[in-house]
Automatic annotation (TrEMBL):
Transmembrane segments: none annotated. This is Uncharacterized protein MANES_S100200. Residues 7-16 have a biased composition (Gly residues). SUPFAM superfamilies: ARM repeat (SSF48371).
């Protein structure tokens, strides 16, 4: 009886696997049919996805989203998953570059979904294609678009392999991404934008500050931005405090940036200690302890250089 039960369970499992495979094949076929509406060949080399028809773009985006929805840990290794990445990225890059307001919000959300679903090992060779079009949309007047682009870029940079960092930094300089982000944060401080907007922009900027030292000067040297962050740190709720402390940690990795932060040493240290308290959520406490560690190192260095030697 036990043997029969095992065989029955195996049959059900095999049936579920076969059903999932058929479902992937069905959605993949629909995806290819949608993508074929935009394929154009030129230079006798390769087919590039191009289509200016908004309804076709929307249809393609929905087909990509549907295909991604069926992908999970059980079928990530299915051949159709890996084989579809290049075509999906080609369509997404084109649509983002066209900047059609009617589909940009959907396109941004699909890019985020793609990066979340697909393994980094599969996506890594394609990610650079997304950096420039996403960066150019960070200042979009459609908040949904700018937020999703910031989210996607944050995930890309967090999973970037070291050998690609130099090339990505060159792209960020070309796109003036740090300038766009600091402008967005200044606008938030005097506007009525949602907290999610600030969190995603600041989170992306903090990732950049941690990975590319050359980005730090233009941030800590922005007087208007630093003053706005200081006011928000004092007056905002937990989530914003944690985000600002994380941003400060990136600034504090630069000695001059730390000195800038310590110009308001007493008030800053009081807030750090406050955010370490048990009444604050773990995210705030973690960022407070991290920033305290960075600042302590700088303070020790400053004290050691200012203390006269015994021989003198």
């Amino acid at each position: 009886m036990r043997s029969a039960a095992k065989q029955g369970g195996g049959g059900r499992g095999g049936g579920a696997t076969e059903s999932n495979s058929r479902h992937i094949q069905t959605l993949h076929r629909r995806l290819l049919e949608a993508l074929k509406l935009g394929h154009r060949c030129y230079d006798d080399k390769e087919a590039k996805w191009q289509c200016t028809d908004i309804e076709i773009q929307r249809h393609v985006l929905r087909s990509i989203a549907s295909f991604l929805t069926c992908i999970s840990g059980d079928n990530l290794k299915h051949p159709l998953v890996k084989d579809s990445v290049a075509d999906m990225l080609g369509a997404l890059v084109w649509i983002l570059q066209q900047r059609s307001e009617a589909v940009l919000g959907l396109a941004g959300n699909v890019v985020v979904k793609l990066i979340r679903v697909m393994p980094n090992s599969i996506l890594q060779s394609y990610l650079l294609e997304l950096v420039h079009p996403l960066s150019s949309l960070l200042s979009s007047l459609q908040l949904e678009v700018s937020i999703s682009c910031a989210t996607a870029l944050g995930m890309i940079f967090s999973n970037l392999i070291v050998k690609r960092e130099k090339r990505v930094w060159e792209m960020l300089v070309e796109a003036e991404i740090v300038s766009h982000l600091t402008n967005n944060l200044r606008e938030f401080s005097c506007g009525t934008m949602p907290i999610e907007y600030f969190q995603e922009m600041a989170s992306l900027l903090s990732i950049i500050l941690h990975q590319w030292p050359a980005s730090r000067y233009s941030v800590w040297n922005d007087v208007e931005l630093m003053e706005a962050l200081q006011l928000m740190l004092v007056n905002s709720d937990f989530p914003v405090k944690a985000t600002i402390l994380k941003l400060y940690s990136g600034i504090a990795l630069c000695a001059h940036g730390s000195k800038k932060l310590l110009e308001e040493e007493e008030a800053l240290l009081q807030l750090i200690v406050l955010c370490m308290g048990r009444s604050y959520p773990p995210s705030s406490r973690i960022e407070a302890f991290r920033l305290a560690r960075y600042l302590a190192l700088i303070i020790c260095q400053l004290n050691s250089t200012s203390t006269p030697s015994m021989s003198s």
